[in-house]
Input
Amino acid sequence: MPAHARERLVAAAEELFYEEGIRAVGVERLLAVSGVGRASFYRHFPSKDDLILTMLRGYDERFREWLAAAVAEAGDDPAALFDALADRFDRSALRGCASIRTMIEFVDPGHPLHRAAVAHKEAVIADLDRWLAAAGRADHAELAAQFLLLIDGAIVSALRERGAAPAQRAKRMASALLAAQA
Amino acid sequence: MPAHARERLVAAAEELFYEEGIRAVGVERLLAVSGVGRASFYRHFPSKDDLILTMLRGYDERFREWLAAAVAEAGDDPAALFDALADRFDRSALRGCASIRTMIEFVDPGHPLHRAAVAHKEAVIADLDRWLAAAGRADHAELAAQFLLLIDGAIVSALRERGAAPAQRAKRMASALLAAQA
DNA sequence: TCAAGTCGGTACCGACCAGTACCGTCTCCG
DNA sequence: CGGAGACGGTACTGGTCGGTACCGACTTGA
Output
């Protein structure tokens, strides 16, 4: 557990929002899990929404770094990301991703949290596009959008199915698409 | 607007839960939109959760009938469902589907509402499987799971992108998969 | 005509929500 | 040793949550 109150709050937010929902988790529970006092919370964050935003930024950063590492490790093969996703699904029962959850819980397109979640997805598309272009795919833009659709579809499927199956299915689909449009 | 209080409540639930979220919409708003008195609400439904469950059952029924009609209209071509989905996306700014929303807002797998939402998705897979088998696909089971992954991926994409593009993308992917595994 | 059932309106309940104010304590650093 | 800042604990606010109780008005059918 991190030493400073702020980091403990963000860690608790990631854990609880992820496992139970954002609206469903009150400040009280965040305080109990993080061991932070009520006043300290509002010393570090003007409001609960600001904590959510900070959590989202951390999620964006770590998820994309993790994805980039997985692709790089596979010799810049973009389809390898689905293997990494399968690993992730297999190790912990995935309950959606922070971005999808935020887009659904804060459904108003103008809401700052909704916009932050959308920005994350668009950044992932941009990453995918770069990797696919670097791999020499002429159809990199379309493929990037298709890959994100597969990732999101796999995440939603993982809400129902246990284990790595949804990610493995997405990988089979991605491979077929790469072969078909080569 | 339906004459009876119960039907007005279900109609308001479908509209509000869909556009603003389930937890985000309180009983008060349901009453205001439906024009139903507070007491009448609890005469027809023991709790808010029961209204949600009723709404989900209606969604399951109507969505699957609509999907079946779209497939039948296209001469039992399962891939045609993505055209129907594109139509649906184009006409109204889709804000997720009731089932995905419920699985995310009530994330505990043991929760009755979560289970009802999962049952809907599994029923859609069963429908897809039947249509694909009837179309003579030997790989109908795998394809059915893949099609639902595409549908869910398209719905999540539609949270960000306006219009029919996500469904059209999913259709291109479905066609490629059908051709590749034929 | 009259009783039964359905209805909308409203006052109210305890519980919880996000956010504020103030407390005493601990740690760290000069 | 001493002061400053970060901290956890708690009491509190106004507002909203889901749910209950009771009211009078309306419709319906015998």
Q: What stands out?
A: The CA atoms of residues 129 and 144 of chain B lie 5 Å apart. The interface with chain A takes residues 19-21, 23-24, 95-96, 100-101, 103-105, 107-108, 118, 121-122, 142, 145-146, 148-157, 159-160, 166, 169-170, 172-173, 176-177, 179-181 of chain B (CB under 8 Å). Residues 4-5, 31, 35-40, 43 of chain B lie near DNA strand C (CB under 10 Å from a C1').
